[in-house]
Amino acid sequence: GQNIDQPTEMTATEGAIVQINCTYQTSGFNGLFWYQQHAGEAPTFLSYNVLDGLEEKGRFSSFLSRSKGYSYLLLKELQMKDSASYLCAVSGGYQKVTFGTGTKLQVIP
Amino acid sequence: AAGVIQSPRHLIKEKRETATLKCYPIPRHDTVYWYQQGPGQDPQFLISFYEKMQSDKGSIPDRFSAQQFSDYHSELNMSSLELGDSALYFCASSWLGTGELFFGEGSRLTVL
To answer: How crowded is residue B86: how many other Cβ atoms within 10 Å of its Cβ?
Structure first.
């Protein structure tokens, strides 16, 4: 089975750094995605980690440790528009991507 | 660039009626996924197709069925609709080689 855990909600200040954690236990593992989703909109792709380590892409970075079943998404220089849900998703086999519960991030002035 | 196209964008049905949602994946993508997302919830995987064959099944009710056609578009058929079926239904497509899912804008189903 698939079990993916994230904090439900987080609040951070504009201009600050925030780290959103994701732990997973899956029967198979091909890679881990992070998606951003604004309310009522489709999820949009942020990152995809296959190997251990840190992937940096502008203000967003994603880290993966396969041995620990752990990933985090790091958002720097937070902006108000970063207020959204952040979804961790695991590709655990052929043609099956399972999403976590999502973390609702609120950025405050 | 072409994206995933879903239709209709909004649909209102009554209980016990039937609804059909359509999805047109990005050209040359070989995999289609269907997700259901209730208010304030994460997307729940329903079903996926690889090269027109069903490849995996999630929490899809028996009242729902789906298929992928020769032109790679997919349809999700929902019968005996219940109030709890009201949700956003997302279709996503990917190419097996890259893994990244590209989502359509979703079809919002309201069951009255």
So the answer is: 16
CB atoms within 10 A of CB A82: 19
Residue A43: asked if its preceding bond is cis (omega within 30°), the reply is: no
A36 has a pLDDT exceeding 80: yes
Decide: B102 and B4 in contact? Cβ < 8 Å. Answer: yes
Q: Report strand pairing: B107-111 vs B10-13.
A: parallel
Q: Which burial class, exposed, middle or buried, applies to B97 when counting CB atoms under 10 A from its CB (0-12, 13-18, 19+)? A: exposed
Asked if B106 reaches chain A (Cβ–Cβ under 8 Å), the answer is: yes
Choose among B33, B50, B106: nearest Cβ to A97: B33
Percent of chain B with pLDDT over 70: 96
Interface of A with B in 37-96 (CB under 8 A): 40-45, 48, 85, 87, 89, 91, 93-96
As a whole number of angstroms, the distance between CA B57 and CA B78 comes to: 15
User: Which single residue is written with the structure tokens 């999502």?
Assistant: A102
